[in-house]
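step=encode ok
step=design start
structure_in=
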């Protein structure tokens, strides 16, 4: 590996850490918002990203818990996805990248990415259904990921994971025959 590739890999590792920290802060902020929206709704305008769903909480607690659990699940899955990326980059041996650990981590990344996409799609449909029924939800676009992009990215990562898994199997067979 050249020095340039090594530098780029380390730079991407640092960027992955920064994204992971940001996503973790967002997930924790949403958890705190959830707590305050239930017990101290007066503080919501001063909290993280001002996700105020107290109006919907007063109208329908099921809708509130449904939408908040979807938003929170998406946020936590994003943080877990980048945790897997960091774990993969930390333990990856670039001189021998084809091994079972890397194959499993790439598969896990595809599952998380597909889950984020599917939950985002369900969330958008749920929000549209609530708005159709007259609920005022405000702007939730910042909390709902682009479902189509995540589903497409998850499918691509799944294909790569499948190819990688087959490559590991072939490598193991070749090592046994030599």
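sequence_out=
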């Amino acid at each position: 590996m050249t020095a340039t590739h090594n530098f780029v890999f380390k730079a991407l590792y640092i960027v992955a850490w920064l994204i992971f920290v940001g996503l973790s802060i967002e997930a924790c902020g949403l958890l705190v918002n959830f707590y305050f929206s239930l017990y101290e709704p007066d503080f919501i305008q001063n909290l993280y990203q001002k996700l105020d769903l107290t109006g919907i909480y007063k109208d329908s607690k099921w809708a509130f818990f449904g939408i908040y659990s979807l938003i929170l699940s998406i946020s936590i899955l994003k943080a877990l996805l980048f945790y897997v990326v960091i774990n993969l980059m930390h333990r990856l041996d670039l001189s021998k990248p084809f091994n079972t650990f890397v194959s499993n981590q790439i598969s896990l990344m595809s599952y998380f990415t597909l889950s984020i996409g599917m939950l985002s799609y369900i969330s958008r449909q749920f929000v549209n259904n609530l708005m159709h029924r007259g609920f005022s939800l405000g702007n939730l676009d910042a909390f709902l990921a682009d479902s189509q992009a995540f589903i497409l990215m998850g499918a691509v990562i799944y294909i790569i994971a499948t190819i990688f898994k087959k490559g590991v199997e072939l490598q193991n067979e070749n090592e046994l025959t030599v």
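step=design ok
step=annotate ok -> The two ends are 26 Å apart (CA to CA).
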